[in-house]
Design a protein that fits this description.
Layout (H helix, E strand, L loop, with lengths): L13 H13 L20 E9 L7 E9 L7 E5 L14 E5 H7 L4 E3 L2 E6 L3 E8 L2 E8 H12 L1
Antiparallel strand pairs: 1-2, 1-8, 2-3, 3-4, 5-6, 6-7, 7-8
Amino acid sequence: MSRTVEDRPLGGTDAESAAAEATAAEGPNPAAAPTTSTAPAAPAAPVEARLRANLVTDAPVPTCLPVTLRHAPADDPRALLIELPVPGPPGSTGGRPTWTFPRALLEAGLRAPAEQGDVRIWPCGRVQVVLELHAPQGVLLLQLDSAPLVRFLRRTYG
């Protein structure tokens, strides 16, 4: 049987391929030491980004909010969490409402309108993104720069 370039194992030379084929033809060698580690891979560290978002309202002066984006692969490797500071009534500790949504939703929303559940994302011009978050208390519209979101997404895959 002849081999084509596409049939070669990735990263191996012809000599390595021939040795692998000969070993496979002979069967397993119980005396051979394993070549790969059987230790489980360490879970990836959480990735967090603190960004500034403009709260979209009808007020003449824009309100800037700190936003925290978090990706915790140990909890769910495909999910992102966004956390917003919301001032509570006087004398209370306030709350930090969070929304969890798929990382793929943010990726898609950077290029075209995308939505899932209580979260909608769409590009706004060439350098900004609008994030629409729905809650029982109402709707929150945030405008963020795209570049820090792209950098955050890249770090979640690294």
